[in-house]
Amino acid sequence: SIARLLTAINSYSAANEGALPLEISNLDVDTPTDLDSNNFKSLCSDLVPTYIQSLPTDPVRRDPDGITSSDCLATNKYWTTAFTITRKFGNKITIGAPPRVENGTPISISN
Length: 111
What we know:
The protein has four helices and four strands, in the order ααβααβββ. It is of the alpha+beta class. It has a four-stranded antiparallel sheet with strand order 1-2-3-4, covered by helices on one side. A hairpin with a 2-residue loop joins strand 3 and strand 4 (105-110). The longest helix has 14 residues, at 2-15. The protein is globular.
């Protein structure tokens, strides 16, 4: 699921002349940030449904529908994927999953 999320962000970037979504571009370098509605108010609607059907969530949450476009647009609804996004130098990003997902081993993927 984090691979699908990274693919959606890369697709957004490709469609926007290499630019990352603004909320990701504005992140401090090397600072993992929770992918939730508090930190990424517009990222959800930037990606869903154009680049991904819904934002995937940590499998432990047992939320097979993920964060849908209606979740993205709801103004008073808190949502969280339980993943983190970290901006690296050169506008590279890493998406991380909580260690509990795979027997305590941290999982991440980078572009």
